[in-house]
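I have been asked to look over a protein record a colleague put together. Alongside the sequence sits a line of tokens, each denoting a local backbone shape. Please read both lines and tell me whether the tokens look consistent with the sequence. I do not need a full report, just your reasoning and any doubts. I have pasted the whole thing underneath without changing anything.
>
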Amino acid sequence: TALEAGFGALYCPDNGRPGVPIRLMAGLHLLKHTFGLSDEQVVAQWVLNPYWQFFCGEEYFQHQLPIHPSQMTRWRKRIGESGMEKLLQLTIEAGKRTKTVTERSFESVIVDTTVQPKAIQHPTDARLYRKVHAAMLRIAEKEGLDLRQSYRKLMEWGFRKHGGHMKAKQFKRAKKVLRSLKTMAGRVMRDVERKLSGDGYEAHKGVMILSELILEQKRKTKNKVYSLHASEVECIGKGKAHRPYEFGVKVSLAMTHKEGFCVGIQTCPGNPFDGHTLDGQLDQVERLVGRVPEMTFVDKGYKGHGVPEARSRVLISGTRKLGYALRRHLRRRAAIEPEIGHMKGDGLLGRNFLKGMEGDAINAILCGAGHNLRKILARLRALLCLLSG
């Protein structure tokens, strides 16, 4: 009922085919992110699982696919980021009803940031030049252009040669081959640009501009392009020894201090300083929970956050001259790290396949909802074992 009241205004009652039930679509998305599945997998498994069908509002067992998997993409676009926040809010309400969390749990939260990687290949210069070259050949084939020279075989040979030189640590030879790859990609791009008509150039304007930026960017260029199909990807370094740089978007999370229940998660485009994301994160927690937490525990990256103590008392790890209870609570700040690991390993926060900046925001919020449902299922499972034992 709450879903129909919140999303009903997005449907037209007297135009076109009747929409799929809102509870079914919301339930499929929650199941997808609870068990870390793709759109195709969750639809296929829904037919086999009576418990999933009951969760999505079915009264009788269904033997046919409920929807085509592509409908989930269209529903996400229709609902948007604000609608996904309502789904996250519903999981928080379900957590309170099952006593996974209590109202007192919202008095103190842990806030941290992580990176939500995008589903792109590692953006080396050679790979980017190869992708630019392939994009130009696709445009030429689609528009029927007769190129002076395609460099198709030379590009493949040069890409393999560059990889072999880098593997053998022959960096001077690799650099020489890299210049050849850039030259060949640039020649094909300029040839396509000359022969495209006005309407043809407008149809492929985005790809042409991104390709030119890739060929012009240098080592110290700011706001580099790391992918043709996901130009919003940013290079973020979190100081990890095993992974110095990650390519995606920064995500801010807020978890309850005691249970590790997600009460807020949002993307932070532009890779802002962690301290500058705290105020917006507390705003989201207030929207979802209905109150601002009295205590907020953060790491040292949040120094200079600017949140007044009257709003929420922010305790930074490493703070001295605290009482025993506060020191004990502050030590628990690190408990958010394994929670983030579970969201990446068990959920879909570790690799985002949704398109654009809106897809980044939607995937992050749904990962928080899936994390909460896994917490609720774990509690119900423990209660069932306790009652049956």
